[in-house]
């Protein structure tokens, strides 16, 4: 009962977010980029539900556009990290031997850099743009994906059906894709969900540090960064974008828990 | 035991080598002449030539790497392009602030996790458990920098109990420095306790199921003794591993917290390095934090048998 309430809340939060993004595609309360110097730092009102920022731009409209930008970055990043990580983890876990040793040494070395610093350094090299953030975050989260997939594959490769496929004379690639990969999908799905939350968090942190999506485009992170100097005069600027991040992460984490309970009953608590 | 320590140390060497390789080649990934990239457009030709000679750019790449690694081993991480100070000096002066914040916060978060996680596991399914788990889930969803902003808003702006911007070094005024460190430490403690509480609770639940706990209870031991003497020691090991990972990660990873509270720490150094394209500083920060990460995890692995007697040193 309590579990299903938890799941329902997760669906509700993520669903609300998707609705906000979809509505934002066809309607925004104001143009999120138009500067209006007559109405700077206006507190929340009927005209501006969440107030306006230091350039008089509507905070609600910016948060809605920010949702679209942050979520699309997260989706792309997770897709790249999961596809690349699954391929490498599959190869490492199935072939074992030297291939595995080389891949794991590199992935361990990558794992030694704090994710956010590695992403920062990569953005420094690649330049600050939407693309480089996606690539930097995907690389930063690649080792974790490789680890999880490899772990799952190692236990799957010892099962009878894999042995049977080998005895039947199937090629290595065929066995990996046809028999090992489908059985490794549940943990990969659970990982992809957690990854989504981490990426939303890291992207907002990068934007907050000023190396994320370049202004004037809004993301929740850079909205918080530009709110920092106006804490005395316009504290509402620091509230709304943060609440958006919390609601997203809460929803995604709850869905992740539900997915884990469903797919991997041993982990259920 | 000594053989185990030695073997574990040997295993860390290839990882550290590849870490160094990655840090070295990171800057080489940037298209163009590395010296030009480091000094920026319109650099003084003489300085450019000097840097060329220093980096050995006319020699093969593996020679350049060997030269660089040799410098690193002697503690020479190059000089900052923006301030002209040696990177190693910058790192050491900044590491203190970060170190204090990270060590105190993780220590406090671990204590909170041990108590809250064990109690929640002990009263599993109760209102208390629900509250602890709800709190932990909420913490996991709150970005640390936003939590920091909120705390600043409440204690700095509204209540005016604590300073909002700035920092006083410990050496000048320990009491003043403490005032600036309270909020960063509180933020990080709360942020990091979420995942530790969940880990402690789930391992305590596993241990509470075991026969020897039933036996300890049957002997008539007080619940407090059962939890403290029998459950905690056997349930702590996985949390300890996580504490190690957290320490290693945070040492460079609290850039956002340092930015919120304008603290001159390692993460802040790295961020300003990135923003001003000061590549020697970026390289130095990366290398330093990665080495710390590897060493902290090494230490945890070596401590592991002390906490979990079932893990024998083989």
Structural commentary:
The complex is a heterodimer of chains A (269) and B (314). Chain A is an all-alpha fold. Chain A is 72% helix and 0% strand. Chain A has helices spanning 2-26, 59-95, 97-111, 115-126, 130-156, 160-167, 172-209, 220-227, 240-263. The mean pLDDT of chain A is 87. Chain B is mainly α. Chain B has 13 helices and no strands. Chain B has helices spanning 2-28, 34-39, 45-55, 61-73, 87-122, 127-141, 144-158, 174-208, 211-218, 223-253, 255-260, 266-275, 279-307. Chain B is globular, with a radius of gyration of 24 Å. The termini of chain B are close together.
Order of helices and strands of chain A: HHHHHHHHH
Structural class of chain A: mainly alpha
Order of helices and strands of chain B: HHHHHHHHHHHHH
Proportion of residues in β-strands of chain B: under 5%
User: What integer value in Å does the Rg of chain B equal?
Assistant: 24 Å
Mean pLDDT of chain B: 84
Instruction: List the total number of helices of chain A.
Output: 9
Low-confidence stretches of chain A: none
Main sheet of chain A?
A: none
Oligomer: heterodimer
Inertia-based shape of chain A: elongated
Kindly report the average pLDDT value of chain A.
Answer: 87
Task: Give the helix tally of chain B.
Answer: 13
Question: Would you kindly provide a brief summary of this structure?
Answer:
Chain A contains 9 helices and no strands. Chain A is mostly helical and 269 residues long. With 314 residues, chain B is mainly alpha-helical.
């Amino acid at each position: 009962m309590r579990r299903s309430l938890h799941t329902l809340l997760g669906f509700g939060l993520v669903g609300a977010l998707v609705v906000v993004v979809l509505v934002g595609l066809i309607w925004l309360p104001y143009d999120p980029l138009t500067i209006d110097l007559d109405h700077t730092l206006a507190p929340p009102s009927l005209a501006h539900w969440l107030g306006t920022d230091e350039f008089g731009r509507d905070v609600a409209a910016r948060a809605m556009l920010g949702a679209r930008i942050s979520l699309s970055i997260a989706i792309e990043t997770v897709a790249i990290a999961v596809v690349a990580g699954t391929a490498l983890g599959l190869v490492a876990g199935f072939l074992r031997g030297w291939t595995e040793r080389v891949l794991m040494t590199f992935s361990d070395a990558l794992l030694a850099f704090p994710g956010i610093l590695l992403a920062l350094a990569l953005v420094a090299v690649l330049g600050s743009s939407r693309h480089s953030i996606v690539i930097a975050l995907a690389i930063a989260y690649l080792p974790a994906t490789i680890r999880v997939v490899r772990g799952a594959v190692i236990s799957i490769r010892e099962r009878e059906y894999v042995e049977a496929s080998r005895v039947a004379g199937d090629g290595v690639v065929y066995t990996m894709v046809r028999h090992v990969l489908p059985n490794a999908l549940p943990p990969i799905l659970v990982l992809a969900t957690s990854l989504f939350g981490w990426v939303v968090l890291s992207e907002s942190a990068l934007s907050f540090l000023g190396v994320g999506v370049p202004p004037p485009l809004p993301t929740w992170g850079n909205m918080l960064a530009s709110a920092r100097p106006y804490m005395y005069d316009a504290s509402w600027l620091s509230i709304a974008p943060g609440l958006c991040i919390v609601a997203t992460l809460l929803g995604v984490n709850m869905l992740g828990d539900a997915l884990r309970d469903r797919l991997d009953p041993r982990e259920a608590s | 035991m000594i053989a185990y320590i030695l073997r574990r140390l040997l295993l860390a060497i290839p990882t550290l080598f590849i870490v160094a390789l990655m840090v070295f080649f990171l800057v080489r990934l940037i298209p163009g002449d590395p010296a030009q990239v480091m000094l920026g457009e319109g650099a003084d030709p003489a300085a450019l030539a000097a840097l060329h000679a220093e980096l050995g750019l006319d020699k093969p790449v593996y020679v350049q790497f060997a030269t660089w690694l040799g410098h690193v081993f002697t503690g020479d991480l190059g000089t900052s392009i923006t301030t002209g100070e040696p990177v190693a000096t910058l790192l050491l002066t900044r590491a203190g602030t970060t170190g204090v914040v990270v060590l105190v916060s993780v220590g406090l978060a671990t204590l909170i996790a041990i108590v809250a996680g064990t109690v929640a596991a002990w009263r599993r399914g109760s209102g208390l458990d629900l509250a602890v788990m709800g709190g932990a889930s909420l913490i996991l969803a709150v970005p640390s920098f936003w939590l920091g902003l909120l705390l600043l808003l409440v204690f700095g702006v509204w209540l005016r109990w604590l300073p909002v911007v700035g920092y006083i070094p410990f050496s000048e005024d320990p009491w003043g420095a403490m005032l600036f460190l309270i909020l960063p430490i509180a933020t990080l403690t709360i942020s990091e306790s979420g995942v530790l509480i969940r880990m402690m609770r789930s391992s305590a639940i596993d241990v509470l199921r075991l026969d020897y706990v039933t036996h300890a209870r049957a002997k008539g031991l007080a619940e407090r003794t059962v939890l403290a003497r029998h459950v905690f020691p056997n349930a702590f090991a996985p949390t300890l591993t996580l504490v190690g990972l957290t320490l290693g990660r945070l040492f460079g990873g609290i850039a956002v917290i340092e930015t919120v509270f304008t603290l001159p720490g390692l993460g802040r150094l790295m961020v300003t390095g990135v923003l001003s394209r000061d590549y020697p500083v970026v390289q130095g920060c990366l290398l330093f934090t990665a080495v710390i990460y590897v060493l902290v995890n090494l230490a945890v692995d070596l401590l592991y048998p002390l906490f979990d007697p079932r893990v024998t040193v083989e």
